Amino acid sequence: MAQEGVCPGEGGGPGAVSPGEGGAAGDGAFSGAAVEAVFREERGLLLASLVRRFGDLDLAEEVTSEAVEAALRHWPAEGVPARPGAWLLTTARRKAVDRLRRDQAYAARLAVLQADAERAEAAAPAPDAYGMGELPDERLQLFFTCAHPALAAEDRTALTLRCLAGLTTPEVARAFLVPTATMAQRIVRAKKKIRVARIPFRVPAPDELPERLPGVLQVLYSLFTEGYAASSGPRLQRLDLAEEAVRLARILHRLLPAEREAAGLLALLLLVHARRAARTGPKGEPVLLEDQDRGLWDRAMIEEGRALVVRALTGGPAGPYGVQAAVAALHDEAADVESTDWAQIVALYDVLLTLTPSPVVAVNRAVAVAMRDGPGTGLALLDALSVEPRLRAYGPYAVARGDLLSRLGRGGEAAVAYREALELAGTEPERAALRRKLGEGREEG
């Protein structure tokens, strides 16, 4: 019943059209799905560029939406352009300039924000080898920009995921285990705080990076989690998001090589992403860790991740990403589920619970205990977590209970848990797998 990460390492877009792909202008290749795919892939980059240019998140979001509306009008007749992202960016920039020309009050407020940003940049120390001036990625710059200490930690992470990482509000809510309405209010609150407090969108100085780093690490981890196990849609994995998170984590580690948690996060992402080819079957169905063909795992990626784990755990107390990476390394090093060092994994989850107490960590620890000590012991731990309200909407918790109940021969109770999980499942592969479990349970009964 070993689940491959109830959440990757923690134990938390299909059909996308990339720039340069799609029909040539005028070839008539258009569908609403094409616009949606382009928008999902390009939205974060588009907003990052617009915020950097105009310094106002609300304006960037508004003209981005207007650019998409323009695409819906033009692309049916003209076809999807060869570079849809560039088309959207050019259109959005023009609309922003038009908006500022028409609305003098808005333009004046924007000028104040830009003046604040210029004064702050002039007063900041010059970037050094570890400064953001060396960072060749605009989106990562904006991740650090949004990790402003004036915002509450959860608010700035949510805002970055929604507005710059390109996740939807329900996807961000899932990352925090809160209702969608609660997350929507949190994002509105963060945007209002930026507007009222006149927080400038500027690249932070080198001495500000350590304070902002944890927030950026959380954003990258959450982005990867959505790629690892999508909240909704026809596919279990969204490899575009997972690979983008890995790419940005690599840049961050190169930027801050002395930061052990940056190494730990990159190690975690590599060690989990290395299993991507084995995590789904021929029809996209989820494949549990115990059933995966380990010959499909990316060994070069695993070796890179293992080396980074050593770096993350050396030189001081371990951080949460380093500990999660160590868990992932133990899974990747084992020849099979039976020979996995479950005792060491449980011990690592014990450490992780002291660093970042979380119901998701507790669920994964319970699963590991079940593998070490038997399903009855693990089930008792899961049942003790039933009072945790955040787990009521967390499907993997119900799946874990169902699997342990099934192993104990309690088929009727397992079916109840699987039906609960089915109501929470967001992707079609998850729903299909749970329906199969329910069918198997009826046959056994």
Q: How much of the residues is beta strand, in percent? A: under 5%
Order of helices and strands: HHHHHHHHHHHHHHHHHHH
Question: What is the rounded distance between the termini?
Answer: 20 Å
Largest sheet: none
Which value, in Å, is the CA radius of gyration? 23 Å
Structural class: mainly alpha
* Individual helix count: 19
Number of strands: 0
Name the quaternary structure. single chain
Uncertain segments: 5-28, 123-135
Short description:
This protein is mainly α and 445 residues long.
Report what the structure shows.
With 445 residues, the protein is mainly alpha-helical. It has helices at residues 32-54, 57-78, 84-102, 104-123, 138-146, 153-163, 169-176, 180-196, 209-228, 239-255, 260-273, 299-313, 320-333, 342-355, 359-373, 375-384, 395-407, 411-424, 428-444. Helix 12 (299-313) runs antiparallel to helix 13, helix 14 runs antiparallel to helix 15 (359-373) and helix 17 (395-407) packs antiparallel against helix 18. The longest helix has 23 residues, at 32-54. The model is unreliable at 5-28 and 123-135 (pLDDT under 50).
